[in-house]
Specification:
The complex is a heterodimer of chains A (about 90) and B (about 900). By secondary structure, chain A is mainly beta. Chain A is about 0% helix and about 25% strand. In chain A, strand 1 and strand 2 form a beta hairpin. Among the domains of chain B are: about 30 residues, no CATH class; about 160 residues, no CATH class. In chain B, a hairpin with a 2-residue loop joins strand 13 and strand 14. Classes of the chains: A mainly beta (about 90), B alpha/beta (about 900).
């Protein structure tokens, strides 16, 4: 799987079409040419890469079993501030 | 001695250094801070973006706490949402935090309104399921108008013709919305509104755009923030206070069998939200720590470390520096605007609130004047980035995309002396250097306001950004005493008032901040929203329906019940107009009361109920009248002067001179005086006319309509109708009650509704053609009809006491040459002063050449940063709709002040 800038911990969200690299300060597209991650990629904490995320469907909606009550979640949801996040 | 020398002498006598003032030219204003330039360069490229992190967490925690006490459940949901969002910190930022992870970010509130998303779930999912686009398609940007995403493109779906949401988040939006199917505020309101007598009439009124706003769309805002508690105690201190109050109140009714027991739950909820706010701030400290750890550039690294220190401190403790205090107020502001769709959540008199922190830092050498101005520039950018997600009609048609976070300056302090602080000079300076749409600035003009401050403010107004606007402090205080006196407002609290939203005089109070070894009485908001009620009624449309016996010829439907009265005098027309208006207010008010009652029961304010006095003292949320003053709900009008001019022409041409029968007048109006309508031409400016074959038939009556007396010329024959209208409305609005059991009153701002409501209104008796915009504001002359100069408009506008209503809005357009040089600044201030001394409440200026605006309309790509004053707010030209652009271009331009 090719990782994208938007999946990197050093990605700074700007809007629905672009972000910025915290290292290079370059503007990074989310889609299309130039959106693939660079060698300095560090995986960002998101539900999709958490140990507690299971059974994703075709839309990447899956189950979060990291909390006392199990619930649904989605893979691209940011989890850097989640108290139960565990990187896969 | 030349005039210039005489003026300089006069200024010196008043203690003003004229050399400083004459030096203020465009070239001499210092550039904004380098970091701000970087941030604004990025800002101009940004798209308004919706993401689902906040709604996801709110929904999850709300559902997981099914069965809990509502206020506690909502506090848990909001705290979880705030504290789980991805944190964004941009390089160059010195003040941080955003509504969401995106810089111009927002999100839907399905718990407020979910019907659209549920009705469109299938279509939305189809877009989400659409095959991946080619690379070229994926990066092709078709969005237009600055940050507005008006059409879908690539992997981005347009929502509300303003926001882009990424395709992969659509299933999340659909899934979250499902939970609120049938139980959002909107749907519960609709369910119970059906029981309202006259419900079908209300539906007719809304469908015809006679009235154009449901209160649940924007249930909070148009009020003033209060930052006192966190500034005094910090989040940890507030949590301790909550623990104390829980111990004191839990299980105790304290003599109040209805609300007494609720106090315990309130304090539990407040503790939870204070913990959530604290964690949210700490998350920024943690992210800044990470960014500092990977940063190789020493300047950026230091910047991140400073952010970390500030955020870690304010996550727990009361601020000890100006920067910490300013950052904490931002955190509070974002916390409040994230709890509901909001517009007009105003900052208030922050230059007075933060003066003690500024004073101490300067005295102790902790910061410099320039560093303070720089922070205030960063602050402008932060506030400019606040977006509101609502429907296209509300966001575009009413708000023009603005969120009206107004910052007030001046006025009086608790002791009745000028409240102007040194920090407020810097706030204006920051507004001159860093030219952004928000926060707009409002001067509370008082005869006690220092001349040097007024000149500084006038110098800023001259730059053409539309701010500061000018409000009459004494008139505002008079309204406060009249409207909130019955709730116990005294003169001291009246002095604390300021603007909430673009032009809404809002109740405030002073609270004692202990800091730097002394007590400073700081002003802040003390009431709930003024942004709901009967909003916005198109007054000319009501008159049209009087003349057509309630039948809407545009919709080809009977909208209001036929009055079947022979309109054989102007008095008969006026009486039927009042009767129609009573029916409209009655039914719309009932439905809006239901909407807001359901909102306060299901979605009560949480952060705002912590901050607003006297909620914490009473142990009661803002929805349950925890605030000190609650008579804030109002009636909002649109098209006042269009209506006044139409009455004036009817009087002159039909009833006084009897040149035409009413039937002849009506026929001419229905035939648009022989011109094409704006629906046909696509031009909404009242000066554009394209004749049809029938034009000659109506040429004479059209000319007579245009020549009838018009408001704005100091002509009593026209102005008398404004006086009649205002006197009538004073009593009429107060005969209806809000859901707080308080009388309504008049709010007279059109925001941008004079575009859409003009659009639905046929030609009128004053010669305004079908579909063109109404006159703007409430006492601005209809464009092109004011022939006797600015002072004649002032004469016309002040035929009634402005202190009897919440506001009165006047927009003036001056050619830049009219206020050139220091004498121009003085002239501008003289204009303001003349109006204020006549009792005028508000005046604001577009100082721009109409040629520039026409060029910007033709070539928007060359004018990304051009700003204009629309109503009580400044907006980027390229982000406002064409009808309002046309209207601003057409406003009378004065070349001589």
């Amino acid at each position: 799987m090719i990782m994208k800038h938007i999946d990197c911990k050093n990605y700074i969200y700007l809007d629905c079409e672009k972000g910025m690299c915290a290292l290079s300060k370059a503007i990074l597209p989310i889609d299309g040419k130039g959106s693939d991650a660079c060698p300095r990629f560090v995986t960002a904490e998101k539900c999709g890469c958490c140990l507690h995320f299971t059974n994703p469907d075709s839309h990447n909606l899956g189950t979060c079993n990291g909390f006392e009550k199990e619930n649904w979640t989605y893979a691209s949801c940011g989890a850097a501030s989640c108290e139960h996040f565990k990187m896969k | 001695m030349t005039n210039e020398e005489k003026l300089n002498e006069l200024l010196k006598q008043r203690g003003i250094n004229p050399e400083q003032l004459t030096a203020i030219t465009m070239e001499d204003i210092l550039a904004q801070a380098e970091g701000c330039t970087h941030l604004m360069d990025i800002y101009y490229t940004l798209k308004n973006t919706v993401d689902m992190e906040y709604p996801y967490w709110y929904n999850r925690v709300w559902q997981e706490n099914d069965g809990d006490i509502t206020i506690v459940r909502r506090a848990k949901a909001m705290a979880a949402a705030l504290s789980h969002m991805t944190v964004t910190i941009q390089p160059y930022e010195k003040l941080v935090m955003n509504k969401t992870r995106n810089v111009r970010g927002a999100f839907p509130f399905p718990w407020v309104t979910a019907s659209f998303f549920n009705a469109q779930a299938e279509a939305l999912m189809s877009e989400a399921d659409a095959p991946a686009l080619s690379e070229a398609d994926a990066v092709s940007i078709v969005g237009e108008g600055g940050g507005n995403v008006t059409k879908s493109y690539g992997n981005i779906i347009s929502l509300a013709k303003k926001f882009g949401i990424r395709k992969e988040e659509i299933p999340v939006l659909v899934e979250v919305s499902k939970s609120w199917n049938g139980n959002s505020v909107e749907e519960l309101s609709n369910k119970y509104a059906r029981y309202t007598p006259g419900y079908q009439l209300e539906q007719n009124i809304m469908e015809s755009v006679l009235c154009m706003f449901d209160s649940y769309c924007i249930p909070q805002g148009r009020e003033v923030m209060n930052y006192y508690l966190p500034l005094q105690y910090g989040w940890d201190g507030i949590i301790d206070l909550c623990d104390q109050r829980i111990e004191e109140t839990m299980g105790e009714s304290d003599g109040d069998g209805i609300l007494g027991m609720g106090r315990g739950y309130y304090y539990v909820a407040m503790k939870i939200i204070a913990q959530g706010m604290s964690k949210w701030c700490q998350n920024y400290a943690d992210r800044a720590h990470y960014l500092a750890s990977i940063e190789t550039d020493a300047v950026f690294k230091k910047n991140y470390e400073e952010i970390e220190a500030v955020m870690a401190h304010i996550a727990h403790k009361a601020p000890q520096t100006f920067r910490q205090a300013l950052q904490l107020t931002l955190a509070c502001h974002y916390g409040v605007v994230n709890e509901d769709p909001q517009s007009g959540q105003s900052i208030g008199r922050i230059g007075q609130v933060l003066q003690p922190f500024y004073e101490k830092d300067i005295r102790e050498g902790i910061t410099t004047e320039e560093e303070v101005i720089e922070l205030l520039e960063f602050y402008r950018i932060k506030i400019t980035c606040i977006e509101c997600f609502a429907s296209a009609g509300v966001t575009g048609g009413v708000l023009s995309g603005n969120t009206f976070n107004n910052l007030s300056l001046g006025g009086l302090n608790r002791d009745g002396l000028s409240a102007v602080t040194p920090l407020e000079y810097h706030i204006i300076e920051a507004g001159m250097r860093c030219r952004t749409t928000q926060p707009t600035l409002s001067i509370l003009y008082d005869e006690k306001t220092p001349e040097s401050f007024l000149m500084k403010a006038a110098s800023c107004t001259k730059l053409g950004m539309g701010y500061p606007a000018w409000m009459n402090n004494q008139t505002g205080m008079n309204f406060m005493m009249m409207n909130y006196g019955p709730e116990g407002m005294n003169l001291q609290d009246a002095r604390a008032w300021c603007l909430g939203g673009c032009l809404e005089s809002s109740p405030c109070c002073f609270l004692p901040l202990e800091y730097d070894g002394k007590i400073t009485w700081i002003p802040g908001g003390a009431g709930p929203t003024a942004g709901s009620g009967v909003h916005f009624v198109g007054l000319p449309k009501v008159l049209e329906l009087v003349l057509t016996n309630g039948y809407d010829h545009r919709m080809k439907r009977q909208i209001l019940p036929a009055h079947n009265r022979k309109l054989d005098s102007l008095e008969a027309v006026q009486e039927e107009w009042v009767n129609y208006l009573k029916q409209i207010i009655d039914v719309v008010n009932k439905v809006n009361n239901l909407q807001m009652d359901i909102w306060r029961k299901h979605c009560m304010p949480i952060v705002n109920s912590l901050l607003k006095p006297d909620c914490f003292t009473k142990g009661r949320d803002l929805g349950m009248m925890g605030g000190r003053y609650n008579a804030t709900i109002n009636f909002e009008s649109c098209g006042t002067i269009t209506f006044v001019n139409a009455l004036s022409s009817l009087y002159k041409n039909v009833y006084k001179d009897k040149k035409y029968t009413l039937e002849q007048m009506l026929e001419a109006m229905l035939h648009n005086f022989g011109f094409k309508t704006s629906y046909e031409t696509g031009v909404f400016s009242p000066d554009f006319r394209e004749a049809t074959d029938e034009a000659s038939k109506y040429a004479q009556i059209f000319a007579d309509c245009l020549n009838a007396p018009k408001f704005g010329n100091a002509d009593w024959e026209a102005d008398q109708f404004l006086k009649w209208y205002e006197d009538t409305m004073f009593g009429l609005t107060r005969s209806f009650q809000s859901y707080y059991g308080k009388p309504l009153y008049m709010c007279q701002i059109s925001v941008s509704t004079h575009g859409p409501q003009g659009f639905v209104t046929l030609a009128d008796a004053a010669g305004r053609l079908a579909g063109t915009t109404y006159s703007d504001g409430s006492v601005s002359a209809a464009a092109g009809t004011d022939k006797n100069g600015i002072y004649a408009i002032f004469e016309s506008a002040t035929v009634y006491d402005h202190g009897t209503q919440q506001n009165a809005q006047m927009n003036l357009k001056l050619h830049p040459s009219a206020v050139n040089g220091v004498q121009g600044t003085r002239k501008l201030l003289d204009i303001v002063r003349a109006y204020m001394r006549k009792g005028g409440f508000h005046v604001q200026f577009n100082i721009v050449d109409s040629k520039t605006l026409r060029d910007a309309q033709a070539k928007p790509e060359n004018y990304r940063d051009l700003m204009v004053r629309v109503a009580g707010f400044t907006q980027y030209w390229c982000e406002i709709g064409k009808p309002i652009q046309d209207e601003v271009i057409y406003r009378t331009e004065y070349e001589n002040a």
